[in-house]
C-alpha cells in the first residue's frame, strides 16, 4: 500500500482496527418490542398532551379533554363563534332535510329516517369529533349499499319490517367496527385502499346512483333491482309506454334550477348559500306546485304522510342472533369501511386550515355516532363531502354547527313534517342527481392518467366494476388492485448500479446521471428496500444477474476483472432472517468466484441482525464502510490494481 | 452571499441556473410499460441464451434447449456421469419403494400408488427439470393433506373409489396450477410465504404425521379422523385395551434401528448409504420375520396383495364436473402450493453446488409431472428433501438419476410386488416417523428466536395452528402472519433524522452515530421506502411530528429557529399520486410556517412523477440537490444565519 497515490480524499481513516460502522448495543427484548408497538400503533404520540401534565388531577382533566374534544373548545367558546356556527348550522340544515329524505328513499327506508339520521348522530359527533368542519349525515353511496347488500335477505318491498331491522343492525355493526378500529388504533388499514381506487369507486357509485334516479324522473312504478348499467337501461327502455311526461318535466326543471345555482355559486364563492338553499327551495316550490295542481293525480308520486316527533328508540329492533345477523354483520363491515370516507373529508379540510385531526379518534367518534344512531332509528352516517363543504363555506367555527343543525332538524321533525306530505319524489331524484354530479372527480382521473398509468388502471377498473356489474364487485376490484400494487412494490424492489460522479466523492445512480462513471474492478449496487422474505429470492436473482452481466461486459471489453461487489445498504431499512440468509449466500458464492463483498452504510437495525445471525463474522468488519466511496477506495488500494490512473480522471 | 465564509467543501456548484437534478426525458408509455413488465416477470432475463443466437435454426435449437433442460446435458453426457447416476438412482429407489408405500398408506390410498408415483413423474422431471439433485417422489405432508381435505367429501373408508378419483383430480389441478404459475411467470407468489412460517408449518405437520403413526405402532383398528393432538391422544388412550404389544415391539425395534443408522451416517457422511438402505432393509427383515412367525395371526397387520404391473391409465377417472370438482380444485391448489416446496429444496442444493435453477421452469416441470401423473394413477409428487439429500450424497450428477430410479421402481412394480405381501404396516409407520424426525428444524427455530422475535412468533403460530387445530388452520395462520408482516413493513417505513458527521460532508442517522450532529436551523429527514398510498398518511403524520418536536426542542433551548426541512429522497425508490400529494401538502404547510422544503438526491422516477404532478414547480429547482450536504450549506448561506461559527466546529 505504501507509496501508492491516494485516490480521492478518504474522509474516514481506513483500517484503523475498530469497526467503522458500530453494532448497536443489545437492548432488552421488551424494550424493543415496546418501541416497535409504539411506532406501529401510536406514530402520532397521541397521549403527549396527557403525559406532559403534572399531578393526577391535571392528567385526568387532560385525558378527558383528549377523549372529548368539545372540552377543548367549549371553555373558550365566544359569542362571535356562536354566531358563525348558528348561521352555518341553519344553512346545513336547509340542505340536510331534503338530502336526508332523498337518501333514505335511495336506501329503500322510510323517508323520515333520513331526518332522524341528521339529529342524534350529529349531536354525538359534536361532543366526540375532533374536526371543526365536518357536517354529519347520510351519504348516497352508503345509502345505496343497504338495498344492494341486504335486499336479498329481506326484500324491502316484501318485508319492510325485517329490512329496517337489518338496516339498524348493520348500522350498529358498522359503528362497532369503526369504533373498534379506532380503539385498537388500526386506523391505518384504511390507507391500504389507494386514492386512485377510491376515485374510481366513487365515480362508479355516483353513476349507479344517478341511473337509479331514472325511476323517479320518469315516474316509473316498476324497476329492476340490479344496479348495473345494462339492466337499468333495459328496465328503462322496455317500458317506454309507462314514462310520465309530467314527472319528467318537473324533474328536469328542478335539476336545471339546481345545476344553475351550483354553477352560479361556484363562480361567486361568497354566494354559496344560493346553492346550499336551492334543494330546500325546490322542495318547497315543488310541493306547493303539486299541491296546487293536484299532481298526485297526474302521475307525480308524492312522499305522503311523515310521522311527527323525534327519533323513537330502535334498540329492541337490533337482530343479534343468527341467521339474519351474519348478513347484517357483513353489511356493517362493508358500509363501516365506506363510511370512513368521512375521515378523509375531515382531514382534507383540516389540512387546508392547518390543524390536526386524529384518524383513530375520528373513527371512535363516527363509530359511537353510529352505535347510538342504530338505537335511535338512524342508519349509517358519516361526514359527507357536499354537506361539509357547505358547512365550511357558511363559516362554521367548531363542531357546534353540528349541534345547531341537529336542533334545526329536530324542530323540523317536531313541527314541520306535515309540510312534506305533497313533496314530489321526482324533486328528490333531481336533488340526488345534482349532488352526485359533484362526486365525479374527472380532474383527478385525468391527473392519474398523466402521472401514473397504473393508478389510472386501478381507478378505471374499480369504476367499471361498479357500473357494469355491482358495487361489491367494484369494491373487490378496488381492494384487489390496491393489494396487488402493494405486493408488487414489495416483491420487486429496485436495484441500481452506482457510479462515481466526476470531481466528487459522491456515488450516484448511473441510469440517472450520465456523467457518473463505473469504477473498474468494482460493482456498486444500491438496494432500495428492506430485504425480507417477500423479496429476498428476487434480489438474489437480480443481484446475481447484475454480477453476471458485469462479468460478461468485462470479458467483452478486456477491462480490469471484478474484484469487489459493494452493496450500498443506506436505503435498506430492515432485514429479516431471509435477508441475512441472502447476504450470507451472496458472500459465499462471491467467495467461490474470488470476489470480495463489501457493505456500505448499513443501518443499525441491519448491523444488529447481521451480527446476531453471524453473517457479520463471515464478511468481516474490514469490509463494512460508512460510505460507498471508502469501500471503492479501499478495494482499489487493497487489491493492488495496476491501473490506478483510471480512477484519477 | 459574497464574503461569507464557505461552509465545508461544496462539491457541486450551487445555484448555477440549470437544475442540479435533471428530470429524465419523457419516454413512450409502451416503452415504460414494457420495461416494467420485463422487470416484474422476467427479472432473470430467461431468454438471453435464445436471443444471443443468430439465425432461426440456432434460435430454435436454443429455445428447445431452454424448454427441455435435458437437451443441455445429454449431448455431453459421459460414461462416468452415467455410473454415478446409476449408483445414485438405485440407492434412491431403495428408499423410494418403502417410503412410497408408507406415504400412500398415510394418504389413505392403495399402497401401490406410492410406487406408481415414483415412476412416471420421475421420468417427466428427468426431461423437464433443471435441477441436477432433486429426486422426485411423494411427501408426507402432501400425503396427509389428501385425507384432511378430501375426506369429508368422500370418506376413504366408505367410498374408496370416489376418494381415489378425487385424489387423481386434485393432483391434476395441482399440476395445472403449478404449470400455470410457471407459464404466467408468477413464481414469486411463493415468496410471500415467509421462511419462518414454512419452518413452523412443516414442524407442525411433521408432529401431526408422527401422531398419526401411533395407530400403526399400537396396532389399533379404529382411530380418529381428526389430526389435532387432543383428539389423537384421546383416541389412543381411550382404547388402551386394544394396544397390541407385538406390533409395538416390532415397530420400536425398527424405529431404533432406523434412528441408529441415521445417527451413524450423520457421524460418517461417507457411509450415507447405510441410512439410505436402512428402510428397505427393515422392510425385508420385517417381512421375513412376519412370514416366519405368521405375524398376521398375532395382531401384526400386513400390506397384503399388491397388483403386479406398471401404472394403469387413470385419465378417465378425472372428475371434471361439479359437484365434486370444486373440492378437488381447492385441494389441488393447496397441495399444489405445498408441493412447490420441492423448488426450495432444489434451489438450496443448486446454491451449494453453484449452479442456477429457474423457479418458473421448475414449476412448469413439477406441474407437467403432476398432470401426466394424474393420468397414470399417481398422486401429488414433488422433490422431497430426504430423498434428494440421499440422491446428492449418493453422488448424482444429472437428472438422469431420476430416470434410473424410475426404471428401478418399474422393475419392482413388474416383478417384485408379491414380495411385499407380508410387509407389516408397523414397519411403514416406523419408516415414516424416522423420516419425519428429520423435518423438524429446531436449529432454524432457535436461530429465528435469536435474530428476529417476530419471525419466531410466525413460526410458532403456524406450528401450533397445525398441531392444535388442523393443517388448514396452520396454513392460514402462516399465510396470514406473512401478509400482515408485509403490510406492516409497507405501512410503517422508517424516517430518521440525519446529522453531520464530524470532519466530513457525510450526513448519517443520528440514532446510529452518536457523533453525528444536527445542523442548527435545518432538519434533515431520511425516508427509507417508496412513498405511496399505503404509507403516505403515516409519513404525513410522522414527518409533521418530527417537525413539531424539533420546533418544541428549539423553543426550549432558544436555538436558531427552523429554516429548512431537507428530505433525503435517496432511498425513495418510487412515488405514486398519493406520494406526490404528500410532498405538495408538506410544502404548503411548511410554507405557511415560513419554512423552506428541500429535496436531496431524488431518483429519476421520483423527479419524473414530481414534474408531471406539478409539485416540482411548487418546490422550485433551486431547492433540489444532489446531496444532503449541499442542501444544508445552501440553506445556511441563503437564510443569512448570524452564527455561521456553529457549523465550522
Low-confidence stretches of chain A: 1-15, 641-649
Spatial gap, N to C terminus of chain A: 20 Å
Counted by DSSP, the helix tally of chain A is 28
Strand content of chain A: under 5%
Mean pLDDT across every amino acid position of chain A: 84
The best one-word shape of chain A is elongated
Helix content percent band of chain A: 55-70%
Oligomer: homodimer
| Major sheet attributes of chain A | 6 strands, mixed
Characterization of this structure:
- 2 copies of one chain form a homodimer.
- Chain A is mostly helical and 649 residues long.
- Chain A is built from 28 helices and 6 strands.
- The first copy, chain A, has helices at 29-41, 48-52, 56-67, 70-73, 79-106, 112-116, 120-128, 140-150, 160-183, 195-212, 214-217, 229-237, 245-267, 272-293, 324-339, 341-353, 359-374, 385-393, 400-416, 425-437, 442-451, 453-469, 471-491, 533-557, 577-592, 604-612, 615-619, 628-638, and strands at residues 495-500, 507-509, 522-527, 564-568, 596-600, 624-625.
- Chain A has a 6-stranded mixed sheet, sandwiched between helices.
- In chain A, strand 4, helix 25 and strand 5 form a beta-alpha-beta unit.
- In chain A, helix 9 packs antiparallel against helix 17.
- The longest helix of chain A has 28 residues, at 79-106.
- Chain A is elongated.
- At the A-B interface, helix 1, helix 21, helix 22, helix 23 and helix 24 of A face helix 1, helix 21, helix 23, helix 24 and helix 25 of B.
Question: What is the compact description of this entry?
Answer:
With 649 residues, the first copy, chain A, is mainly α.
